[in-house]
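hiii, so i know i said id send this last week but things got crazy w the move. better late than never?? heres the sequnce for the chain we talked about at the cafe, plus the structure i predicted for it. fair warning i was half asleep when i ran it
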Amino acid sequence: MKTMPSTKIREAYSHDLRQMLTSDQTDLPKDSIRIELAIRATIPSAMGFMTKTAAQSRVAIDENGCELLLGKGDCLLKVNGEITRVHGAMITGQHLARIAV
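okay and structure toks below
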């Protein structure tokens, strides 16, 4: 089995990542990536519910931990870099209709 030198692997990965993040016509980031980065820069807090992997947790709150949650409203709230475990209640449209009456 022929292996690629690490520089070739890095170059291939870098090219694939660049292609995924940029639009076809320009080297500018795709709109969805730009919007997500703008939101993350504007809103310094994040909430993460139960995830399957630590990688998904890092996407949600930039840290591990969401993969250890119990589900059913159990979540981590990150405000100004401090993480707090909270429980969010699920409210359906039927609940809101009863409250609004």
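btw The helical segments are 6-21, 31-42, 54-61, 93-100. thought thatd interest u
miss u guys!!
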